[in-house]
Design brief:
196 residues, mainly alpha
């Protein structure tokens, strides 16, 4: 039974090994944060309203983009692994929580940033539990720390939430990029200098 659990855990972790998921999700989260920050900075209600559309589109598009990227750059070298699409609920849930978080930023006091850091931490820790990868626990701690620091500094809830999203998005993007570059090198070595 232990061997089966190890194989199952390894299969789950392999979904994240090439960096594509974090790369794409990082871009999506960063884009939401930057767009929200832009609307906040220029105080344009149309830009702020369009943020809702961006979040909804991201929630539906992100998984399709991940599958497309893997089919183009990963599976030709590793073989196609059928992933259970029902497991994508955590990606959709993450974007729903981002949507709710930004919405509450306009309704409740500055504790939104503190709560946002904890919500981000819970999402990332749950991915860590699912995948068995320790880096998600570190990202969860980072999310909680950023939220707490923003709260202590008295940063406005909107500015704090957008800063949190941009920071976490960029960190995820960089992790994904480094993992993808590592994957490219391993494939090149395996193909005796071949390219992706």
């Amino acid at each position: 039974m232990k061997d089966i659990n190890k194989i199952t855990q390894k299969a789950k972790a392999s979904w994240w090994e090439d960096g594509i998921t974090e790369f794409v999700a990082g871009i999506g989260i960063t884009l939401i944060g930057v767009w929200g920050m832009l609307g906040y900075t220029i105080n344009n209600p149309w830009v702020q309203a369009s943020l809702i559309v961006l979040i909804v589109l991201s929630a539906f598009a992100i998984r399709s983009i991940i599958y497309w990227a893997k089919s183009k750059w990963i599976w030709p070298y590793t073989g196609y692994a059928i992933a259970d699409r029902r497991k994508g609920w955590h990606i959709f849930l993450s974007y729903v929580l981002i949507f709710l978080l930004i919405g509450t930023a306009f309704l409740i006091p500055a504790t939104t940033t503190l709560v946002g850091g904890f919500m981000g931490g819970i999402i990332l820790a749950s991915i860590g539990v699912y995948s068995g990868l320790k880096r998600f626990y570190l990202l969860a701690i980072l999310s909680i720390l950023i939220g707490f620091l923003m709260y202590l500094q008295g940063v406005s809830q909107e500015l704090g939430i957008y800063t949190l999203l941009i920071t976490l998005g960029l960190v995820e993007f960089l992790i994904g990029l480094s993992l993808f570059m590592k994957f490219r090198k391993e494939v090149a070595r395996g193909n005796k200098g071949g390219n992706l």
